[in-house]
C-alpha cells in the first residue's frame, strides 16, 4: 500500500496498514473485520443443541453480549458472576428475547481461590457437559488493592482466578470432547496492550506484590499473562492429543466499564476523540464468538485473534520459555495457598 505525502510516495508500514483496515472495517481472510458484530459472525454457525458455554464476567459489556448471542444460537449458557442480581437481570433480558434460552447463574469472585473452588464444585455437581469456556471477566484498578490472599487485585482477578478455574474444569472439557466428538474451546480475553509490557518489567513476585504499582501497567501485565497461559496450555493439550483448543482474543477497545475507569487519566477532549474509534459492545464480542463457535477456527490452538482474524502478539507473549516459567510459578503459588487454606 502506497500513499502520497507532500508529493512523495510513502510505503505504509504493517502497523499503518492494520490501523487503516481497522478504521475502514475491512474484512480479513476470515471474511470479517473490525465492524463485524457477534450476531453477524455466528449467523452461519450450525451448532449442536447440546453445547454448553461457561462465561465469566457475563453481567455487562462484551460478556453479557457474548452470553446473549450464544444463547440466541441455541447454546446453554452458564454465567459466572460476582453480582448475582445483575446476572439474573441479564438472564431475564436474554430470555425475553430468546424464550427457550437456558441460562444458569452461579456466583464466583475470581480474585478469591476459595470462591473459584466453590464455583467449580457447584458447576460440576450439575453434571453438565462443558464445550466452551470463555475467560472474559476483567478489572482495571487505578489504585493498588489486594485480594483476600494478599495478591495484587488485577493480577489475581484477570489471570490467577482464570488459571485456577481452567485447571479445575479442563478434565471436564476433555471428557466432554471425547464423549461428544465435538471440539472443546477455551478463549482467554486479552488485550492488545499486552504488547506494552517490557521483558525486564515482567517478574512474577512483583506482579503478586504490586511493586511500583501503575494501574495501566498492571492491567497490561495481566493480559500478557492471559496469552502466556494460552501458549503453554495449548502445548500441553496437544501433547495429550486432547480434542480441546485454547486461544486468546483481543476484543478491540470497547465502550465498557474498564474504559470508563481509564477516563480520569486523560482529558475529556482526548477521550471524546478516542471514543469515536471505540467499538460497540456487539462489535467487541464478535471475536470471542467467532473463535468460540466458527467452523473456520476448528483445530486452531495457541493463537491470538483480533477483529475475527488471526493476529500477531508480542515477542514476549510468544516466548515458550516465559510461558512455561509463568505456568510453573502460578501452579506452585496456587497449590501452596490452597494447601495453607485447607490446613
Automatic annotation (TrEMBL):
InterPro entries: NAD(P)-bd_dom_sf, SDR_fam. One of its GO terms (molecular function) is oxidoreductase activity. This is Short-chain dehydrogenase TIC 32, chloroplastic-like. Coiled coil: none annotated. Keywords: Oxidoreductase. Belongs to the short-chain dehydrogenases/reductases (SDR) family. Transmembrane segments: none annotated. The keyword Acetylation does not apply. SUPFAM superfamilies: NAD(P)-binding Rossmann-fold domains. The keyword Ribosomal protein does not apply.
Amino acid at each position: 500500500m502506497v500513499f502520497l505525502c507532500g508529493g512523495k510516495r510513502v510505503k505504509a508500514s504493517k502497523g499503518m496498514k492494520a490501523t487503516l483496515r481497522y478504521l475502514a472495517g475491512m474484512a480479513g481472510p476470515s471474511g470479517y473485520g473490525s465492524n463485524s458484530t457477534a450476531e453477524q459472525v455466528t449467523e452461519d454457525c450450525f451448532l449442536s443443541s447440546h453445547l454448553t458455554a461457561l462465561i465469566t464476567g457475563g453481567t455487562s459489556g462484551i460478556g453479557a453480549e457474548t452470553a446473549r448471542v450464544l444463547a440466541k444460537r441455541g447454546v446453554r449458557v452458564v454465567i459466572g458472576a460476582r453480582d448475582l442480581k445483575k446476572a439474573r437481570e441479564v438472564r431475564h433480558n436474554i430470555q425475553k428475547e430468546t424464550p427457550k434460552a437456558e441460562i444458569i447463574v452461579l456466583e464466583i469472585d475470581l480474585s478469591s481461590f476459595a470462591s473459584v473452588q466453590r464455583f467449580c464444585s457447584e458447576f460440576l455437581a450439575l453434571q453438565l457437559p462443558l464445550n466452551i469456556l470463555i475467560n472474559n471477566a476483567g478489572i482495571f484498578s487505578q489504585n493498588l488493592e489486594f485480594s483476600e490472599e494478599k495478591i495484587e487485585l488485577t493480577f489475581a482477578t484477570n489471570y490467577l482466578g482464570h488459571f485456577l478455574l481452567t485447571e479445575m474444569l479442563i478434565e471436564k472439557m476433555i471428557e466432554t470432547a471425547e464423549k461428544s466428538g465435538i471440539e472443546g474451546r477455551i478463549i482467554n480475553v486479552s488485550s492488545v496492550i499486552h504488547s506494552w509490557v517490557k521483558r525486564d518489567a515482567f517478574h512474577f513476585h512483583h506482579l503478586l506484590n504490586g511493586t511500583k504499582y501503575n494501574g495501566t501497567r498492571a492491567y497490561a501485565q495481566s493480559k500478557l499473562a492471559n496469552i502466556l497461559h494460552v501458549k503453554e496450555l495449548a502445548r500441553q493439550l496437544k501433547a495429550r492429543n486432547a480434542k480441546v483448543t485454547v486461544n486468546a482474543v483481543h476484543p478491540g477497545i470497547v465502550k465498557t466499564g474498564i474504559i470508563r475507569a481509564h477516563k480520569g487519566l486523560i482529558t475529556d477532549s482526548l477521550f471524546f476523540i478516542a471514543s469515536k474509534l471505540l467499538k460497540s459492545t456487539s462489535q467487541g464480542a464478535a471475536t470471542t464468538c467467532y473463535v468460540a463457535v466458527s467452523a473456520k477456527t476448528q483445530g486452531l490452538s495457541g493463537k491470538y485473534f483480533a477483529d475475527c482474524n488471526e493476529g500477531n502478539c508480542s515477542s514476549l507473549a510468544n516466548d515458550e520459555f516465559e510461558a512455561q516459567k509463568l505456568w510453573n510459578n502460578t501452579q506452585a503459588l496456587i497449590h501452596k495457598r490452597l494447601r495453607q487454606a485447607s490446613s
